[in-house]
Amino acid sequence: MTFGEAVVSGLRNYINFSGRASRSEFWFFCLFSILTSLVGAIADLFLYSASASEGLGPIQLITNLALLLPGLAMGVRRLHDVDRTGWWCLITLTIIGDIWLIIWWCTKGTAVRNRFGPDPLAAK
Questions:
Q1: According to DSSP H, which parts of the chain are helical?
Q2: Where are the domains positioned within the chain?
């Protein structure tokens, strides 16, 4: 999956917590989210320098809030690809949980159909 396809897929399925997401789709969407947040931060520095220097400016805040739900849905679909339930996202509430999530997000998904759907990389 290309960068553009991943962004379109992530935004189109912004409330879709079912199905599976490939590694490339997930990581390209993460890159898009980081770049978008960075652009928002830069815009805040130029437009709202006083509030941006104290923390999140309004543009970056709106951008991050807009990408929160699509990012969460993408993370859940990525966990589905490695045959884990989306409730594992709650493991981030522990200190060691972030490490486990990153490991699972980097793991290759199951090559065959699992309980969450068909392989997203299978030939269509």
A1: 3-12, 23-47, 49-54, 58-81, 97-106
A2: 3-106
